[in-house]
Design goal:
With about 450 residues, this protein is α+β, with helices and mostly antiparallel strands. It is built from eight helices and 27 strands. The protein folds into three domains: about 180 residues, no CATH class; about 90 residues, Immunoglobulin-like (Sandwich); about 140 residues, Mannose-Binding Protein A, subunit A (Mannose-Binding Protein A, Chain A), CATH 3.10.100.10. The longest helix has 15 residues.
Length: about 450
Amino acid sequence: MMKHSPYTRGLFLLIIIVLLFIGLGSHSIAAEAETGTFSGRVIDVEGNPVAELPVMIGPTMAIGPGMHPAFSPKTYPTTRRARTDAEGRFSITGIAARMSYFSALPRNVDVLFPKDLETKIVKAMEEKDYAAIYTSGVIEMETDDFEPDFEVLSIDIRGITFYPRNDFSRIGFSVEPGSDIKNVKVIVQPRMRIRGRVLFKNGTPLRNARLRLVFNYTRADGQGHGSSGGRPRTDADGYFLFYLDEKDDTANYTFSVEYQELEATAEPVLLKPGDRLDGLTFTFDSEPIAPKPSPPRMPFNPSATPPAPKPISIPAFETVWILNPTNGHAYKKIPCESRDAAVAQATEEKAHLVTINDAEEQAWLSAVFGHEFYWIGLSDVEKEGQWQWDNGEPVTYENWLPDDFFSEASDADERDYAVTTFTDGKWYAVSPKSILLRMTAMAILEKADVPDNSSSEDK
């Protein structure tokens, strides 16, 4: 694994934070537009209400055949949230028209992310004060700290029940502007997990420390095996929780934890699907050791040139044409290394990079493909400032983000190509030096001649 200096790593993290927090810009934009409401009841598999459960609607993205959350602790302020009452009822308001998912949150989320910290982050983003974000401590939070204790098994919306595709996918949906979706029924169950404790050999607990946890499992029937892990954090008494998504079969598990140069392995355990094991103990063969000091913070320098990140890695997925019943055109998303590569593939398939002619087509694309960085067929290469669609159609609709949204206004003359973003699918122009260019690894193709393998999507 390649190592980075604390300074380089800190600058790279700051860049990622700025990108992750663009949802806050989305939130302020959405506040000016019409939003939707999503309300209903959360119950367990036996029909009992789940009371005092924090729930949220957050952004999601389509990767391959599944829907995956775009949530992290750093984007927590962008979510819309509520807490169930004694009857399990909830109402979430102010939902922007974007691809979203419903999830529980940890019951102690208000402790994990206090309201004053959230207010500080929101204010910093509104003022584009990235130094304040960097020094707030939010970049040190990890997703493992925000794991919910309940998982969503199904969501019933207006008599239709939706299920996740697999243990790792989410149920994606979009709330239309101005709509009020009522009487939703959400069925949840407690997640499979372990509760462990980490001790030194004299019995002293490892307090408030970040661990590296690794586990191996072998199915009880001998038909499969695997491994995974995470980075849980111990509390003041050395306890930690770790949730398991590999939960479809009874299996023998072996868990190990690492801290600095120390390692300990617990006794093997047999876990059935849905088990919640307490009492797992890890003992280091060492006297207590002092925590390593945190690496020095890199002074924030907004004019610093960031290290060039590697291109974003997109999992391989099957690409199929999807028919838009409104205009009869077919669309599909493709992975690509560059815009030129996407144009070349489009040409081979007698298609072109997507042309977006009106708000209805934009909404359909967002509902089908989600809000991600996609190359679209819009550029001003021929004449600066005069944007044209690759297929020659006139520009009759625009959906731009503010020109300085990503603090890239200084190179406006070099920004010749447009991409969609995960800020509600809005467009942004990129230059050859833009970090967004290096993060855009997919494109949407469009063709008027419908291929044989297209599928109709009534969205």
